């Protein structure tokens, strides 16, 4: 009989490309992964890994086994979820990914609430970009993730991944306090055609959105500086070096020398919780989604489109 832990080790090597990366994902040593693979080779009487330069590659037999392993592990996950649902107990562990502003502005209160309401549930938070988090949810490395997209830049979800809308987060334009438009009640993007921008690095979802949004407004983006974190962007705005798009969630107090001005029409990003379909019945996943929904109500007020349970 094939051992699940050994199949899981081989599947992790296949997904992550190396023994060391598989070990990091599984939370065990590289030696332990190698031992699991060696036992699986003896068990199947097949060579599963071959040396390829400084790394390894899967043999044909390994690829065949991985295809079955993916189905077997998915069925095991579904069975575990069904058993949890039958017991109705919020127990075990959850691994959650969340992008930076949610990790800062929402998750501390949500995690505190979950810890108080469900003391037998252990939750581990990982701050990461939605483009990274969604594949990790699909592979099962994360049980849940909080992700974002923008009205004109939807985030595609792979097959088998479900989502729950949590909130709509309106963004404003951060301007230096001395900017001619800093005292305005609202402004249109086209009025900033000559502005220099401070934005996220290329490859980030927010970078692509900013470029697309400005071009739709007839503005060719002039990005003067790149920074991943909003506090860094705001420090550059305060120095008079450009303007930045600033969502409300997780922003914290504005630094001296920065003014936030609303935009008309509004710039809105959508915030979702996502999880694998086979995990939907897990009481732990349902409890976390409920806590997230309650958290956005507290932090932002009742979100638009707020409805529905995990299904």
Automatic annotation (TrEMBL):
GO terms for molecular function: DNA binding; DNA-binding transcription factor activity. The keyword Membrane does not apply. Transmembrane segments: none annotated. InterPro entries: ArsR-like_HTH, LysR_HTH_N, LysR_subst-bd, WH-like_DNA-bd_sf, WH_DNA-bd_sf. Residues 2-59 form the HTH lysR-type domain. One of its GO terms (cellular component) is protein-DNA complex. Pfam families: HTH_1, LysR_substrate. Keywords: DNA-binding, Transcription, Transcription regulation. PROSITE patterns: HTH_LYSR. PANTHER family: LYSR SUBSTRATE-BINDING, TRANSCRIPTIONAL DUAL REGULATOR HCAR-RELATED. Belongs to the LysR transcriptional regulatory family. This is Molybdate transport repressor ModE-like protein. It comes from Murinocardiopsis flavida. The lineage of its organism: Bacteria, Bacillati, Actinomycetota, Actinomycetes, Streptosporangiales.
């Amino acid at each position: 009989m094939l051992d699940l832990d050994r199949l899981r080790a081989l599947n992790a090597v296949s997904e992550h490309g190396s023994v060391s990366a598989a070990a990091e994902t599984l939370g065990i040593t590289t030696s332990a992964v190698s031992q699991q693979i060696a036992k699986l080779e003896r068990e199947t009487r097949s060579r599963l890994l071959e040396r390829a330069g400084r790394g390894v590659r899967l043999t044909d037999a390994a690829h065949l086994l991985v295809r079955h392993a993916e189905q077997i592990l998915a069925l095991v996950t579904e069975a575990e979820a069904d058993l949890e649902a039958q017991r109705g107990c919020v127990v075990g562990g959850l691994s959650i990914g969340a992008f930076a502003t949610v990790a800062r502005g929402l998750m501390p209160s949500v995690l505190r609430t979950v810890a108080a309401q469900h003391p037998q549930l252990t939750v581990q938070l990982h701050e990461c970009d939605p483009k990274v988090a969604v594949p990790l949810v699909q592979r099962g490395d994360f049980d849940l993730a909080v992700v974002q997209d923008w009205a004109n830049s939807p985030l595609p979800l792979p097959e088998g991944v479900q989502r729950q809308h949590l909130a709509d987060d309106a963004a404003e334009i951060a301007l230096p306090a001395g900017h001619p438009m800093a005292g305005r009640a609202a402004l249109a993007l086209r009025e900033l055609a000559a502005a220099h921008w401070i934005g996220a690095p290329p490859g980030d979802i927010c970078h692509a959105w900013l470029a697309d949004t400005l071009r739709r407004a007839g503005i060719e983006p002039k990005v003067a500086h790149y920074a991943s974190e909003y506090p860094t962007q705001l420090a550059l705005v305060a120095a008079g070096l450009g303007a930045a798009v600033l969502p409300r969630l997780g922003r914290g107090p504005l630094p001296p020398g920065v003014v936030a001005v609303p935009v008309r029409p509004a710039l809105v990003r959508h915030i979702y919780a996502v999880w694998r379909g086979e995990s939907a019945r897990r009481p732990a996943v349902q409890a976390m989604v409920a806590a997230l929904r309650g958290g956005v109500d507290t932090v932002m007020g009742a979100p638009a489109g707020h409805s529905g349970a995990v299904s």
